[in-house]
Fold this protein.
Amino acid sequence: MTTHAIDRIRWTKLPVPLRAIVSGLLIALVAANVWPLLLLNLGAPLAAIAEGVFLAFYVWWASGGGPPRKTRTVRAMAFRRATLSRKQWFWSLIAAFFFAVSVHASIVLLFRFVPFPIAAFRRGYDFSFIPSTSLRWLAVVVSAISAGICEETGFRGYMQRPIEKRYGAPAAILISSLFFTSVHLTKDWATAGIVPIVFGAGVLLGLLARTSGSLIPGMIGHVLMDVGLFAYWWTGIAGTFNALPVSQTGLDRFFAVTCLTLAVSLFLVLFAMSKIRTVSGLQVSSDE
């Protein structure tokens, strides 16, 4: 028996959650860090082209293409490769859009209670080396696409899906959301108030992946969320949050509108996911 075969046997004997966690982290984080290296070494235009090619091959392989043949079925299962109907797409896109709205409304609401720590949020996101505003926007969009595709593939696909099949959706979504949050705790912007927002985002993305049966709607929502995060909160290309906490301004109209926006957007996310379940006839136990 070859060393490779022995290693494979050892790997398959590991508990499913451990294998899923390791695979999910590797699939998400290794791929997501290709873009920063390209951007720093090639400049925005060439890096964007190279990243587009990389992501195309990444999705092709992660969804079951290429070698090794023995893992194609497993990779397709982990990627949640599925065909959605028009109605499923409609409600999935509604859920994806209002997911992004919910996250940003939550952040705005947080910084109406505590001051916005602009220095912490901008640390590590300096795009000043990019020579023009248009190229900075290009970097923002590609950064969001890279993070959305790689993180959804890793966390909601390769990590959540195997655990989901073995132990059910609640445990799988909880585990993937905890690791999704833990990975982001390394960021300077991960203040105490931001942590529950990141965890909540992970839960909603996990629910969307489970409900739709596909990673694509979650990728779309994740990209929309990250475009706003990169452009506004992290780099300031789209502006800077200047609103003062309500302890200084009182409960003004902006605060009320933010609360209403958050409540309505969260309702629409959950309502859209319930509609996806209805139109698809999803049974929780059908693929466990």
Remarks:
- The longest helix spans residues 133-167.
- The radius of gyration is 20 Å.
